[in-house]
Amino acid sequence: MEEPMPVPETYVVVGASLAGAKAAQTLREEGFTGRVVLIGEETRRPYERPPLTKGFLAGKDPFDKAYVHEESWYADNDVELRLGVRVSGLDRAAHEVRLADGERVGYTKLLLTTGASARRPAVPGADLEHVHYVRDAPDSERLRAALEPGDRRVAVVGAGWIGLEAAAAARAYGNEVRVIAPSTPLRRSLGTELGEVFAALHRRHGVEFVTGDVAKITESSVLTTGGAETPADVVIVGVGAVPNSALAEEAGLEVDDGIVVDASLRTSDPDVYAAGDVAKADHPLLGRRIRVEHWANALNGGPAAARAMLGRPVVYDRVPYFYTDQYELGMEASGAWVGGYDQVVYRGTDPAAYVSGDTDELEFIAFWLSGGRVVGGMNVNVWDVAGDIQALIRSGRPVDAARLADPGVPLADLV
Question: Can you tell me the distance from the alpha carbon of 191 to that of 111, in angstroms, rounded to the nearest whole number?
């Protein structure tokens, strides 16, 4: 009797995102010869998301620059790219994913890179036609078309990274911009003093700030709970994101503000992994679970999960990193210091002097310390230092604050 042909191993990636595409790339680079299936609900091949509120939205870059791979790469590397396909469920016992059209795709190992969705405020008018949320390419294209005339009254709800980047893009087109938020911009991320640096930057470029919580959005304005009314032809909402973890939760995987994974990005099911915005991972360096929604986590997390799926030893403990570009300010930040620091040390220009208008210079590094140890750092218009800042964080050793503040002392000497 003729022996049956062996069934090839199949690795399925749900989420045709940056993390998913880089995972597929890594599987092939690491020598995996089985079947690789990359499934995405969007109709475009995988792309990077920072341009959606940065270069593309501001009209500086064509969208083609955002794609992770050339269109031919997937066929050339025998990656089955299935776009415009919604996964409706996971059957862990059968090792299958169920598609919305009824088809089932079997897997040996499964990776979830489903990302996150824009949070929508529970207020009247949040779904009106002129209200914009930026999470995918069509969102960004629609918003760019609304901003390009340059004669619009734009209200930005939320003063986080997305909101401020969108505000900068709106001003670049010449629109009138007001940002509505309950407190200092970026206060939760940076603290009040450094949040005021970004507020001052935007004010210098003509942005106004309205303090308050949004109560209602109408066809022509945004109203706060305090009664302030901001006229608006275009409303941009940037009030955070929600992890797309419903598939995992319905399948009985552990979920807690994201899909819970260990330091190798493995879920509570040994054959299922998660990476990128949706994953809440044990972080050995930080000693806690964190979920990181920034580009670098998707870029590095996808490959790390792919190696773990292949049985390689993986400890995913990269220092969290993100960046922003707003007007003349370029910034990189490393670490995870929110709520866990007791001192801020500055090297370079005094940020308070910039806020007060005593200087136009905007070049400094801010270090967040806890117990004398650097837990975070942000370099503003100072380049080629992110690696040294991350080395300081990773070392976990106490530093001398005076030397840390001294631009004459190389950061590498403090590690």
Answer: 36
